[in-house]
Amino acid sequence: MHYFIEVIIPIALPQTFTYKVSEAEFEFIQLGVRVAVPFGKSKFYTALVAEKHHNPPTLYEAKEIHQIIDEKPIVTPIQIEHWKWIASYYMCSIGEVYRTALPSALLLESETIISAKKEVVVTDDLSDDEYLLVEALQQQTALKISEITSILNKKKVFPIIQQLLVKNIILLQEEMVEEYKPKLVRYIRLFPEFNSADRLEELLTILKSAQKQKDLVLSYFQLNASQRRPISVKELTEYSGASPAIVKALVDKEIFEEYYLQHDRVSFDEVKESQLQLSEAQSEALQSIQTIFAEKEVCLLHGVTASGKTEVYIKLIEDFLAQEKQVLYLLPEIALTTQLVGRLTKHFGNKVAVFHSKYSNNERVEVWNQVINSSEKAQIVIGARSALFLPFQNLGLIVVDEEHEQTFKQVDPAPRYHARDAAIVLANFHKAKVVLGSATPSIETYFNAQSGKYGLVELYERFGNAVLPEIKLVDLKDSYFRKKMTGHFSQTLIDEMTEALSNKEQIILFQNRRGYSPVIECMTCGHIPQCPQCDVSLTYHKFKNQLRCHYCGYSIAKPTNCHACSSIDLTSKGFGTEQIELELTELFPTKNIKRMDQDTTRGKYAFEKLIDSFKNREIDILVGTQMLAKGLDFDNVSLVGILNADSMLYFPDFRAFERSYQMMTQVSGRAGRSDKKGKVIIQTYNTMHNTIQQVTTNDYVGMYQEQLYERKIYKYPPYFKLIKLTLKHKDYDKLKEGSIWLYQVLKQQFDIPVLGPEEPPVSKIRNEYIRTILIKIPQEKSLGSTKKTIQKILNSFDAVSQYRAIKITINVDVN
Ligand code: ADP
Ligand code: ZN
Ligand code: ZN
């Protein structure tokens, strides 16, 4: 009898692979455990066991495995089913899904690079091998695992490396680029010997001559009694009005002690059950969702901005926790988590875990283990799209917040999956429910809700006394004509800003472009500097005095004269966030103005810091790109300005109007979240444009119907499924020839629309030329068999020797 296992290897080849094991290993191995396997000439990978059998492979001689890594499965059967679905639906290999699904610390391979952590004290509890490795790393700084294999003269090095990762002594190279250090918050507590109410009197006696210190201690007791959770230094000083010096004095006297907690992982020993009362509208929404869940899997919660959707989710989550189910809360971008984690931990305390691509590998592995063991500590997981791949045991509910956000779709690398859609499939495997939430649902989702496939629940009003902001349009053509513009600001916008500022209210300004101005243009010959590697103009960044490519990062110092004609008459064209910021400092020199875009939020906590100081009202005016549109909740913003609505509208994309509506409505939604009515000023050359009118009147359904009509006529989703093929090659002519060949074969095979081969707006990136082909599949056509045909054609394309070097990527449901 022969014993074989079938494994998934984290590479782009379509099949699984067969390896030989001994009878004892065969008995020991469970499906879902990892094994280290040799592959190719000298590589080895961490593979996952998907099957056990007795059939030798026909095309190759099965090799033996290096070793078994796990005793117990780290992946569930449902996960493997889900991966298979993703691989088949999004047309990629299961190995690629596996690679994306697992934290990289669980996927060590021969090419993985390891280095020693800085400032680590090597303790004496290391084994000989561990010690040898740490020593080697101190001399070499970084080593491939294959090199470690030869240093230790052993094949089985994974456990040693894994141990050192757990002991926090070594790092994977990828982490070194940006080792994520979660934000630490300073907390304060009484020294243990004073930490009970009956010691209070004694304490006050000790402090009898220090009135301010006495007051602070009293404040501490009051705060502690009322909230029963850790007290931060900031909270205490705000509550008591005491200065930091007094806190320090008490710390020096060893009455108080300071300690630090990670901001988003604060643990609450005793959570006070929150007394949250849903409004009538919220309760009705909650009940409707519960009723819908009795017969449908998915429900869309369409509620205007600040209608209190989050609180409805919280009540729903309570239901599922009571049934001991796990809950997944998906967010489009992890930047938002800080606010949400705060809100959820208030209700659920320790049961909330965050799965964050920026967390260290250790922390990700920790959450992974908690989820597979159904630990209390991760009953609710908050995360961006990759949290979908955690090993849930009994998932009950998935919340997809801001479901319209395009960042739910992964673009590169494969799998190019949409987390919302993949979440619905995952829920199906678990017999779990899904709630999709948004103030501006995607056309597809609203279509599914209208057709009855999903339930639909709506919230039309903001929570409490808050009302939706009033939206005013400013006609830019008219304003320029009447010379009522200062830089890019209309007089109307300046007046409204002046008023808001005099009321001590805050302002958000939205400009959909970063940088100072997109391009530098020669006034003599019209030359605009281009990126030498990409088909785009370079963007001017004033503060660094640079021209930069936003696609590949190429940069040069700003030229003093034209590279084409040497003229020194250069001018900047267009405008971005940086220029707006500059104009603002001239308009409002005494105000604190900050900019939020990819350039200012690159640093470790830059985003959180900006949000925090804006929330604390240290910033008067915040200028930013679409980052500002993301579900943030500020209570003192009375004015939102959109500087130029038109650049979004004319983006060459079938979703341009849908996206413009979503973006403008979401940014507007940041205004007037508390008692006062907010205002929004939209500057545009097209005041009568339908989309702008729909935003102004908050007419989501109008936007939806108009767009749906267009989608039908022009053959786009939800009526047609789109598959985009992207071809890339360094040789322009070869690419052109190959893409025409592929287009013609597709065209011959199908009686459905095949478009292209097109040169996209950016037709060269990093010296590779790009062509795209778009295939539109009508609803009545079988998606599965169409994909099979496409795959067959791609295989024959690959068989043509002169085209083999052309890289092709497949994007199903491109968006
Ligand atoms: P949405 O997610 O729909 O934009 P939020 O859930 O952020 O809205 O709610 C808007 C504001 O109203 C938040 O500050 C939230 O704390 C508050 N809020 C919502 N519902 C309630 C409630 N039932 N009781 C008290 N405050 C609420
Ligand atoms: Zn010139
Ligand atoms: Zn470039």
UniProtKB/TrEMBL annotation:
Residues 290-459 form the Helicase ATP-binding domain. Zn(2+) 1 binds at residues 522, 525, 562, 565. It is an enzyme of class 5 (isomerase). Pfam families: DEAD, Helicase_C, PriA_3primeBD, PriA_C, Zn_ribbon_PriA. Its cofactor is Zn(2+). It catalyses: Couples ATP hydrolysis with the unwinding of duplex DNA by translocating in the 3'-5' direction; ATP + H2O = ADP + phosphate + H(+). Residues 535-714 form the Helicase C-terminal domain. One of its GO terms (molecular function) is zinc ion binding. GO terms for biological process: DNA recombination; DNA replication initiation; DNA replication, synthesis of primer; double-strand break repair. SUPFAM superfamilies: P-loop containing nucleoside triphosphate hydrolases. Binds 2 zinc ions per subunit. Its EC number is 5.6.2.4. It comes from the Bacteria. InterPro entries: DEAD/DEAH_box_helicase_dom, Helicase_ATP-bd, Helicase_C-like, P-loop_NTPase, PriA, PriA_3primeBD, PriA_3primeBD_sf, PriA_C. Component of the replication restart primosome. Initiates the restart of stalled replication forks, which reloads the replicative helicase on sites other than the origin of replication. Recognizes and binds to abandoned replication forks and remodels them to uncover a helicase loading site. Promotes assembly of the primosome at these replication forks. Belongs to the helicase family. PriA subfamily. This is Replication restart protein PriA. It comes from Flavobacterium amnicola.
